[in-house]
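Chapter summary example.
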Amino acid sequence: MSYKVSRQLRSVAPMALITAAEAMLVSTMCQPAFTQTQYEWVPGSRQARVVPSGQSSQSGQGRQAPQQRYLQQTQPQQYQQQQYQRQQYQQYQRQYQQVPNHSSTASQGSPAATTQSQQSQQKGKSYHFVDSVMVDGLQRQFQVHVPASYDRSKPMPVVLIFHGLHMNSTMMMGMTGFNPVADHNNFIAVYGEGVNNRWSDGRTSSGVDDIAYVSSLLDKLAKEVNIDRRRVYACGISNGGFFAQVLACNLPDKIAAAGVVASTMMDRTQGMMQGSKAVPIVFFLGTEDPLLPWADGRTKDIGKLGETLGLGALGSIDNGLARYGGLMTVPETIGFWTGHNNCNGSPQVTQVADRDPRDGTTVKKETYGSYSNQVVLYTIEGGGHTWPGCPNLSAISGLTGKICQDVDASELLWDFFKSRSR
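The structure predicted for these 422 residues follows.
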C-alpha cells in the first residue's frame, strides 16, 4: 500500500463507517418506502403510536407538528441497493424541505417570536421557536423548546443536543424525546443544526467553526430567554457525541457536563483540552455497536451496514485501519476522561434492572469519581448504534443493532446533568 493511499484511508475509513450507519438510521426512520406505516410521538411520553393511513392525529392541543412524526419501513425485500437508497434519501430531503414548520413563525428572533413567547408564557404552555446566528458568513439555525414552567424572572438550565451525521435537529428531536423530558424536569432543550448535517468532531478540520457557532448560539439564546449560564450541558449521538466532547474540551467554562451516546473520541480531541478543570461526563455505549472499538479481542463485522452500502471490504471497525484514522477505543476514551478528571481507584459497578427482557439487552453502570469529577459509563450489553429508549422498531434495529428499552438515555442524561454547575 502506497503512503498516499494509506493517508487517504486513514482519514476516510472511520468516518465512512460512521456515515454509513447514521445514513441508514435516517433513511430507515424517515424516508418514504414501498409500504410504510406512519407513527407519531405521543405527547408527553417517549412512546409512539400508529396513525391510520390518510388520517392525522388530533389532540387537545391541535394537530401535531411534522417533527413529531416519523416513518417505519416495512419493505417486502430485505434490503435495497445502495443507489436506490441514496435516491430515496434525497427524495425525502426534498419533501422535508417542503413541509411547513409549525414553529417557523417564531424564527430569527422576529417580533412574531416575541409575541408567541409572551402569549405562551402567559398561558402557561410550553413553546417552540427557531432562531439563527451568523458565524463566518453563514446563517446557522437552531431549535429551542421552552417548558411551560419557564419563568422569565428565573434563569433556567439549558441542554444542547447534537444530531448524528446526515441527521438534523428535527430528527434528533424525535429520536431522543427530549421535549417531554424538558417539560417534566424544567429545562430548555436546544437542538443544534450542523452545516451539511455534520459536526467538526475532532477528526479533521471541516472549515466550519462549530465551537464559535455554539458560543454565538448561547449569546443569542440569552437574549430571548433567561438562561442559567452556570448550568449549560452538551450531549449528542455518534458524530454529535464526538462533538459534545470537543465542546467539553474547548469550552470547559461554559459546559458544565457532557453526555455521549454511541461514540468514543478522536485522539486529536485530547489536545484541545483547555486547562485542568474537570468536566463530568456520561457515556451510553453498546457492546454490539459495529462502529465502536471495544479493544476486547473481538472483531465485529460491520455486517448489514457494510453489505448495504458497499463497505464490506473495510471489514471491521476493530481493525488497525480505524486506529490509523485517529479513532480511540472505548477503554482509551474512558481512560482519558478519568485521567483528566482525576478519578482515582476502581469504578463502582452496578447492574441495572432488566426492565424489558424482550429487547435483548442488559445494562451495566460503572461510576468513576464523584460529583464534580464524575465519569459514568452505561455499557449496553448487546446494544447497537442506537439511542437507548428510542422506540424499538425492527426497521431500525435490523440495521443498527438492538435498541435498549431498559433505560432512557434522555432521562438519565438529565439526571446526570441536573445537579452539576459551573
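To summarize the output: The chain has one domain: 106-417.
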